[in-house]
């Protein structure tokens, strides 16, 4: 049992990939912020779909197509319920957070952002919540503004109101920093942005695998998630948008499914959500994602949140005992990520030595180069946690770090 009352032996048994040796050592997987492992229930759902039901959706008249459509639309409803969206049409299936943000930048952004306007982001965004806005601003003649981050790794909220101007067309902010683990106070940010009439997009790539997210409570206008970071397959993600906002978006990609009728002169576009889902979607991915959400609920989202938080605290204390180790990011609210540096040892060398011990972590800039630059570093070591990690995993990491010290002594 974990302190949060999760039956860890049972949970670990649900993830077949964890039970292997890597370089002659039992695998210790601490790279879940990059991608999570998949429970057997998700793998089974994919196998079942391809074994029994595979067909294209929405336009078939035969039984398999009906089943595939039912399962795909069922997955949409499953996501709606999981994030507490009002209507299923507010759930747009995309490839992941990257595609979701690009969709908003190229539809909402291109139709609303013009010369002299501003888009506001923060200093702790992942590249996928920076570059699409840079591209948009360049195209539109607009300016990208940034809420800075302080030395603890928290947003400078004291500057927010002055950065939200009458020219701000959108505020895009991450729920949880993938590089530092900082959890941002989204409800408050949304309230303050809305007070200025500014809509908010929340990048949720690192949130829902750790704690409950209710988009209606947050009141954000857009929320994005990546299935592969929450125990689902790669290639599937979600853009949530308030119906009244999505209804105003111009179509994005053109093609099948997003139309009602096409002549060579004119196309009539489909209703939501199909209008924003051109072409054959990732049917199996959506079904696998729904299975992942069922799995999360079967384990219990509150129990997962308690487990992850407790493990983060244990990990923080354990790392602080390693000589010459400096934890990056000391925000009051953190989730899932332990980012650190070791004196006189490059992050990549730490990663290589840990790999020899069977410990999988990430070393580098974590696609958040501007954030690391503001801390004056080019790379950190990042151990990231998920519901299948245990105190033993942290202990193995710490043993590995002592090996690193020996090698570089
Ligand atoms: N935002 C954050 C905070 C992330 O951690 C990631 C993935 N590392 C992304 C966006 C991009 O997600 P994806 O690669 O699944 O599109």
From TrEMBL:
Q: Which Pfam families match?
A: Aminotran_5
Transmembrane annotation, as ranges = none
Cofactor(s) this protein requires? pyridoxal 5'-phosphate
Gene Ontology biological process: cysteine metabolic process
Secretion signal: which residues?
Answer: none
Question: Does Transferase show up as a keyword for this record?
Answer: yes
Catalytic reaction equation(s): (sulfur carrier)-H + L-cysteine = (sulfur carrier)-SH + L-alanine
GO molecular function: any one? cysteine desulfurase activity
Protein family (similarity comment): Belongs to the class-V pyridoxal-phosphate-dependent aminotransferase family. Csd subfamily.
According to its UniProt entry, the function of this protein is described as: Catalyzes the removal of elemental sulfur and selenium atoms from L-cysteine, L-cystine, L-selenocysteine, and L-selenocystine to produce L-alanine.
Q: Which PANTHER family match?
A: CYSTEINE DESULFURASE, CYSTEINE DESULFURASE 1, CHLOROPLASTIC
The molecule here is called Cysteine desulfurase
């Amino acid at each position: 049992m974990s302190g949060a009352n999760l039956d860890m032996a049972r949970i670990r048994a649900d993830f077949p990939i964890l039970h292997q040796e890597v370089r002659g050592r039992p695998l210790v997987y601490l790279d879940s912020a990059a991608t999570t492992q998949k429970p057997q229930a998700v793998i089974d759902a994919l196998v079942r779909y391809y074994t029994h039901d595979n067909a294209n959706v929405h336009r078939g008249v035969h039984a398999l197509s009906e089943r595939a459509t039912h399962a795909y639309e069922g997955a949409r409803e499953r996501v709606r319920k999981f994030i507490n969206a009002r209507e299923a049409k507010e759930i747009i299936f995309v490839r992941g957070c990257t595609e979701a943000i690009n969709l908003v930048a190229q539809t909402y952004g291109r139709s609303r952002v013009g010369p002299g306007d501003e888009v506001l982001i923060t200093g702790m965004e992942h590249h996928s919540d920076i570059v699409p806005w840079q591209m948009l601003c360049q195209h539109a003649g607009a300016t990208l503004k940034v809420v800075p981050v302080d030395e603890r790794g928290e947003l400078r909220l004291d500057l927010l109101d002055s950065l939200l101007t009458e020219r701000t067309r959108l505020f895009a902010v991450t729920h949880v920093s993938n590089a530092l683990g900082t959890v941002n106070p989204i409800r408050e940010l949304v309230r303050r942005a809305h007070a200025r009439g500014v809509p908010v997009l929340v990048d949720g790539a690192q949130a829902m695998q750790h704690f409950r997210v209710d988009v209606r409570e947050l009141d954000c206008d857009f929320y994005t998630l990546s299935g592969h970071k929450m125990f689902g397959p790669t290639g599937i993600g979600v853009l949530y948008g308030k119906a009244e906002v999505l209804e105003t978006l111009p179509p994005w990609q053109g093609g099948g499914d997003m139309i009602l009728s096409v002549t060579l002169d004119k196309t009539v576009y489909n209703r939501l959500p199909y209008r924003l889902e051109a072409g054959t979607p990732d049917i199996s991915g959506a079904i696998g994602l729904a299975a992942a959400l069922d799995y999360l609920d079967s384990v219990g989202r509150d129990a997962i949140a308690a487990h992850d938080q407790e493990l983060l605290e244990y990990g923080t204390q354990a790392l602080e005992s390693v000589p010459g180790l400096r934890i990056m990011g000391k925000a009051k609210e953190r989730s899932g990520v332990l980012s650190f540096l070791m004196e006189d040892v490059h992050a990549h060398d730490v990663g290589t030595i840990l790999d020899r011990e069977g410990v999988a972590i990430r070393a580098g800039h974590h696609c958040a180069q501007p954030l690391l630059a503001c801390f004056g570093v080019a790379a950190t070591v990042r151990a990231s946690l998920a519901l299948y990690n245990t105190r033993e995993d942290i202990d193995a990491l710490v043993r590995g770090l002592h090996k690193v010290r020996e090698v570089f002594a």
